[in-house]
What does this fold into?
Amino acid sequence: MEKFSYEANGYNRREVSDFVNDVITQTEGIIEKCKDQRTEIQKLKEELNHYRQIENSLKDAIMRAEMAGDNIKKMAREESNILISDAKNNASRIVNEALLKAEKIETKAETLEHNIKILKRKLKLIIEQQMEIVDEIEVLNLDD
It folds into this structure.
């Protein structure tokens, strides 16, 4: 605390005046500093609001991205299920067609085997008939 010297009518006016001027200067400095701090606080509040808006926008974007990702996964699962179902149906159709072809081939093979047996019997019969003719020719030649 400042101590003033005494004069005839009280404290030294110059010292008191200097002190008051000093207090006024310091008070003005403090007031100016407070104004600057208020301006800074206001600026920081605005910046904070701006960042909160950005944060909310990012949260919304992330939520939309997650929803889009979930939708893509769902669609992919549905598509894969459809593809699997189609593949199973195609596989069943192919197997059925192959079984039908195999059955036809087997039937043809049985028919061919049957026809070969018939052909063998007929050839055997023809050969036997031809052998009989040959035997008759030999018998005819011996008698002459």
